[in-house]
Design a protein that fits this description.
- The complex is a heterodimer.
- Chain A is 14% helix and 37% strand.
- Chain A is mainly beta.
- The longest helix of chain A has 10 residues, at 29-38.
- Chain A is globular.
- Chain B has 2 domains: 4-366, Metallo-dependent phosphatases (Purple Acid Phosphatase, chain A, domain 2); 378-561, 5'-nucleotidase,  domain 2.
- Chain B has 18 helices and 24 strands.
- The longest helix of chain B has 28 residues, at 4-31.
- Chain B starts with a helix and ends with a strand.
- The chains are: A mainly beta, B alpha/beta.
- The interface between A and B is large, with 25 and 49 residues.
- Chain A: This is Thiosulfate oxidation carrier protein SoxY.
- Chain A: Residues 36-137 form the Ig-like SoxY domain.
């Protein structure tokens, strides 16, 4: 996907609230956090696009974006981080689109998971492995 | 009604036959000791579009020896599939006779004897002759440079890439993409790009801060009434494989969705043919071709594979044109009504003693070398060993470089980057400073010396191994395994990250590497800013001047399983 600067600024100022949800790290923190968001409901596939690099250029600031037309909320989890909850984007009825971009910190190679809550209350999920590597030795 | 796919397959078969007949002609020619330029360039024109592809020249303006890999393992779906074939398996796959000119150009077997028979390959003045000959026949042919052009020689380093820029401008390049170009730093890249008479394409080069496209993604050419979009794809992992601090304002990545978007954009403009000029590497391009719809031709680079026939992925053909100026690909296409109806391809081997040098280009190259002549020609030592680098594990050049670092820097373990550039010398050759620089020149060549724990060393080996042997090509960076001196190890290429490396042994006393102990490690090409130490070529040159003669023992310190 492409987001222009204008889109990003419009999104930041529009009807979208990004909420950080810091919680203490748990043994299976990401599964617990996801269950909390979905209320234990199973998440389907499709209708949600998660865009993330395959290998992070800088693990401290990894650009990712989510896009789920018709969603009311999209939650993002870094499953390998001590605190897996990254952000929850809530889209009001006046939101022109249901997409968002964010930069996240990844402590190590892990799966980034996005879950969208759709208008009918169902959930869809998308997952992407982002590798955090020490680099060097290019051909 | 023949489907497009069937038509492509029929064309591929025809291309194979053409290749085979070409080969048999060469064999006869060699029997008569009369390999000629006309035979090397022989090509029955097809259709209305001609593409000329050259890539990964690594600033080798002069003819060189370059031994193709003995070990080039593919993993996952790529196992045993071109280009992951070497030696006899490669010859069998493409019906090439052992000891033929093609066998010499494309494989490693019997390399020294064949190199003596057939001579050096490449040289940009020979390449110029080939390009001129093709353009004489097809005046509007599009010449595309896949990148890794400005880096890799002493003269390129001394001139910050300017010698190669001048050479490629004279050659008449129509568009290029990039990788090592960026190791001159983003300011130098922008300075050169401003002067180029052609676009520096990269659909996947983004502004790091604003996350939006920063360079031209494509250029549309017209050839005989046919509109051709050439989309550039720079090396995706530049900020990871090379020092990010040298180009902090740019972000790269495969960005598959971006490639699809650009393909859709140019298709929407009604172009007849979509060509991707890529520096992804072969396996990454193979996967991308299977997922991005609408690309007719991928001209692939980065992994230095020379593949004598197009590889078909769905309706996309992939052309891999080797490295170091050894080959020029000519691709003729029959494009009608916005569809590629057929193609003919030849990977033209640049036999330096057969292809005539273009005088103007020879003069330009000579003038760019003139100021540095004495330095280039300084003889450091003589080698009794075949010196080469290319292959998944240690090459003999790497063994020599590691030996030099261990001795000159008084270290226990040496590490040398698994890059695929670096040319070859034959037993009996003198080693000049220029030869050494073809294997070491770079803008971050500082030879560091530091302490690392056994655990850190293992982490580095595991990390690099996963960059090569991850079964998902999108996670591969395209180099070879980091070369190690003073230490042996076992590697299971099929294991997951963290479990590939075992039996790490300090060679000087045979002891197991202790994960908790510190070892004195020396290496070069660190991607970290502020790395300190002498330049690697000075360290190796000092060593060579002392030993005078290179006699390397066989190196069996790396044991590979799972291949």
């Amino acid at each position: 996907m492409t987001m222009t600067r204008r889109d990003a600024l419009a999104l930041a100022m529009g009807g979208v609230a990004a909420t950080m949800l810091p919680l203490p790290a748990l043994a299976d923190a990401s599964a617990d956090a996801i269950a909390k968001f979905t209320g234990g409901a199973a998440a389907g596939e499709g209708g949600l696009t998660l865009t993330a690099p395959e290998i992070a250029e800088n693990g401290n600031t990894v650009p990712i974006s989510v896009d789920a037309p018709g969603a009311t909320e999209i939650a993002v989890y870094a499953t390998g981080n001590p605190t897996p909850e990254v952000a929850t984007f809530k889209f009001g009825p006046l939101a022109g689109s249901q997409m968002a971009s964010i930069r996240i910190r990844l402590s190590k190679t892990q799966d980034v998971v996005a879950i969208a809550k759709m208008a009918d209350g169902s959930f869809v999920q998308a997952k992407s492995t982002v590798k955090v590597t020490i680099g060097g030795c290019g051909g | 009604m023949i489907s497009r796919r069937e038509f492509l397959q029929a064309s591929l078969a025809a291309s194979t036959i053409l290749g085979a007949s070409g080969l048999s002609r060469w064999s006869r020619a060699m029997a008569q000791q009369s390999l000629t330029q006309d035979q090397l360039l022989a090509f029955e024109p097809l259709g209305n579009v001609t593409l000329i592809h050259i890539t990964d020249i690594h600033a080798q303006a002069m003819p060189i020896y370059f031994r193709e890999p003995e070990i080039n393992l593919g993993v996952g779906e790529a196992k045993g599939r071109p280009p992951h074939l070497t030696g006899k398996a490669f010859l069998d796959e493409f019906n090439i006779k052992p000891n033929s000119p093609d066998a010499y150009a494309l494989t490693y077997d019997n390399y020294v004897d064949l190199a003596k028979s057939y001579g050096k390959m490449g040289g940009m003045d020979r390449v110029a002759t080939i390009v001129k000959a093709i353009k004489a026949e097809r005046p509007n042919a599009i010449l595309l440079d896949g990148g890794d052009t400005w880096h890799g020689s002493m003269t390129a380093l001394k001139t910050n890439g300017q010698d190669m820029v001048d050479i490629m401008n004279k050659l008449g390049v129509d568009a290029m993409t990039s990788h090592w170009e960026w190791t001159y730093g983003e300011e130098r890249v922008k300075e050169i790009v401003d002067t180029l008479p052609f676009p520096f394409l990269g659909a996947n080069i983004f502004d790091a801060e604003w996350d939006e496209p920063a360079f031209e993604a494509y250029k549309i050419f017209e050839q005989n009434g046919t509109r051709i979009a050439v989309i550039g794809q720079a090396f995706p992992y530049l900020p990871i494989a090379n020092p990010k601090w040298m180009f902090p304002d740019y972000s790269f990545g495969i960005r598959e969705e971006r490639m699809q978007e650009v393909v859709d954009e140019v298709r929407g403009m009604g172009v007849d043919l979509v060509v991707c000029l890529s520096h992804n590497g072969f396996d990454v391009d193979h996967k991308m071709a299977s997922r991005v719809k609408g690309i007719d031709v991928i001209l692939t680079g980065h992994t230095h594979d020379a593949v004598p026939e197009p590889v078909l992925v769905g309706e996309t053909i992939m052309i891999a044109s080797g490295s170091n100026g050894k080959f020029v690909s000519r691709v003729d296409l029959d494009v009608r009504d916005g569809k590629m109806m057929g193609f003919r391809h030849k990977l033209i081997p640049v036999f330096s003693d057969v292809i005539e040098a273009d005088k103007e280009m020879s003069d330009l190259i000579a003038s760019s070398r003139e100021p540095y002549k004495a330095e280039l020609e300084e003889v450091l030592a003589e080698t009794n060993s075949l010196l080469y680098r290319r292959g998944n594990f240690n090459g003999t050049w790497d063994d020599l470089i590691c030996e030099a670092m261990l001795e000159e820097r008084d270290a226990e373990i040496a590490m040398s980057p698994g890059v695929r550039w670096g040319t070859t010398l034959l037993p009996g050759d003198k080693i000049t400073m220029e030869d050494l620089l073809t294997c070491t020149s770079m803008t971050y060549g500082e030879n560091y010396r530091m302490e690392m724990t056994g655990e850190t060393i293992k982490t580095i080996l595991e990390d690099v191994a996963d960059n090569i042997f991850n079964t998902d090509p999108y996670y591969q960076q395209g180099g070879d395994m980091v070369r190690v001196g003073g230490m042996g190890y076992h590697i299971d290429v099929n294991a997951p990250i963290g479990q590939r490396i075992s039996n790490m042994t300090l060679l000087k006393d045979g002891s197991d590497i202790d994960m908790g102990r510190n070892y004195v490690v020396t290496g070069w090409a660190s991607v970290n800013e502020g790395t300190e130490g002498p330049q690697i070529w000075d360290v190796v040159a000092d060593h060579l001047r002392k030993i005078k003669t290179v006699d390397l023992k066989p190196n069996d310190s790396v044991v590979v399983t799972g291949a």
